[in-house]
Amino acid sequence: MIRDTSAQDRVIATPPGRQRKLLLAGGAAGLALLLVFGWPSLQRLFSATASVSEARLSIAAVERGPFVRDIAGEGKVVAANAPTLYAANAGAVTMRVHAGDKVTRGQVLAEIDSPELGAKLAQERSNADAMRAEVMRAQVEARQQSAALQREWENATIDLKTAQNDLDRQTQAFTAGASARMQVDHARDTLEKARVTLAHAAAGRGLKEDSLKFDVQAKKAALDRQLSLVKDLQRQVAELQLRSPVDGQVGQLLVAERATVAKDAQLLTVIDLSALEVQMQVAESFARDLAIGMPGDITGNGRSWRGLISTVSPEVVNGEVAARLRFEGATPDQLRQNQRLSVRVLLDKRDNVLLVRRGSFADQGGGTFAYVVRDGMAEKVPVRLGARSLDKVEVLDGLKPGDQVVVSGADAFNDAPRAAISR
Prior knowledge:
- It is built from four helices and 22 strands.
- It is α+β, with helices and mostly antiparallel strands.
- The chain folds into four domains: 51-67 and 352-422, conserved putative lor/sdh protein from methanococcus maripaludis s2 fold (Beta Barrel); 73-79 and 272-348, Efflux pump adaptor protein, beta barrel domain (Elongation Factor Tu (Ef-tu), domain 3); 85-114 and 240-270, CATH 2.40.50.100; 115-234.
- Strands 1-22-18-17-21-2 form a six-stranded mixed sheet, covered by helices on one side. Strands 3-12-15-14-13-16 form a six-stranded antiparallel barrel.
- A hairpin with a 2-residue loop joins strand 14 (303-317) and strand 15.
């Protein structure tokens, strides 16, 4: 058995007072170093009113870069022109097409059988024919009476001339002593009577002709009114054949075959496939930034098209506003009504903008403050934010490039001015 060296070991005794002094000196030196190098951190730690784990926070850096504001969403294809055809009169409907059929402008799509309207048209046509005969009869009577008046005037003219000749002969005979004075006076009276008769004939002829003219005009006016009524009824009868107002496709049949409908009832819709638009729903907060003519991108079927906003609804429904985009240029082929497409509308684009990632801090307190992280502490600072995009927020004041900002989870600080972040 090999012996160890334990027999040669000797315990050296240390004075108790020296060991205690060394321990106290080492502890004091360590405490001094801790106070010198850790005092700022300890001071910040003691000044914090809250402590939150870093895992609960989302932190982003403030930076400069391009700022793009856009709206992205899903849209559906709708027809810019999709007229609905209505019943022009009550009656039984006969459909000439089916839903989905392609139609051309002016093609008959449906017919309405209205016996009452047809009978009324026949009756008014008969009345118009009778009134036309009345006008022709009045014209004949006017010509007859005008001829009689002309004859009376001409006879009065001849009588006046005869009376004038007789007065001349009696005057010559009286001058020669072959006639009595009484015969000359009688011839003069006859001439005056003939002159009065001619004047009355001329005046009567003018008045009677005016009266006859007014009678004929009144009958013509009545005939014109009747013809206007017949023309309107003819238009109503023609409208019983519903014709397509556009080239397109039958959308939906709103009544059954041979159904009896009332006037102004909806019958069917026609979709103009040559004028398609894309409708998207936009959040109310973005709707105020939309304007007609703004550019947009439309994507679907593995293709992309340029578009322009054509209309923005003035009405808010369920917190959303409907906006429509029309295709820039020709309408693409192979698109269908209600087909889903992706839409992106560009609102604003700028370069060299101070920005930070968007988060809940932009909405808390109206976006008037943010928590900036420095040396493990989150400090509440006032900020002024500008425009907002889907993922970025413009910083106008209060932050500088490189600042680390708590973009989400800051509600755990309970609005404290300073908070410690633990790892």
